[in-house]
Predict the structure.
Amino acid sequence: MKPVSSPVSESDLGPRLAATASAIERLLERLLGTAPAEGEIARPERLVAAMRHGALAGGKRLRPFLTVETAGFFGVPREQALRAGAAVELLHCYSLVHDDLPAMDDDDLRRGRPTVHKAFDEATAILAGDALLTLAFDVLADPATHESGAVRAALVRALARASGLGGMVGGQMFDLAAEGRFEEARGALGEAEIRRLQAMKTGALLAASVEIGARLGGADAAALAALDAYGRALGATFQIADDILDVEADAAQMGKATAKDAEKGKATLIGALGLDGAKRERDRLSEAAVAALAGFGPEAEVLRAAARFAAQRKS
């Protein structure tokens, strides 16, 4: 399917982000209801409450926004695009619930509220993360997301590859190793290793958010390649910006604890390039993301704006 022209300006980004976030919130509310879905036996109330705490009422919803916007300029019906975006967001929220656990990053705040293990308990938080993860694939595999089983399989595979062993989870393992958690893995990481870690831990899911929208819309090989380059550059931009905010922003601004990267010995490009060098690299990557969309017309302007937003955001 070829892109559908729908000209927008960069000033549209804020309202469109907000509109998509609101639509995703409403869909997540429905998906995380207490009534069992077809084939389920029962939904434990405490588990549902913990899942809702971890997934609702917070965040910019950038990942589902990328999915919805990419799908939109390939002419995908909005309800289908929102379902795919909700699946991406459910998986992202699972990762946050587990990342916040004492065994991982040990955070007390997320989006200005107590993390799930603080609001409930550690066992419930682990199960809530597990359930959010599996629900993500449930949503993608549902015919309501796309009538073609082959397309749904491609969406499932894209999300699994981005979030699993060779993607986000593998990146988290590299991150723990970089903190010196394991005797056999001690030693500072070089710049190339840091880039690999960040491409897996953060970049892979952001890139998959774009890919899923494109595959939902039947994008051809050339469009998929261009959007993959865009998504990977965007993911790297986002992570460097996050590292910079950890140094420069305060907890109230971010809705979570800051200045933790250096304290925990986390591997970041600030350590490898210095703060000014990291800022230059953030901006270079943002422009590389924009350049990757050169083959598209005005229908991709919001994606271009998203790349600049990733570099300029303040929280």
The longest helix spans residues 221-248. The chain has one domain: 10-310. The chain has 14 helices and two strands.
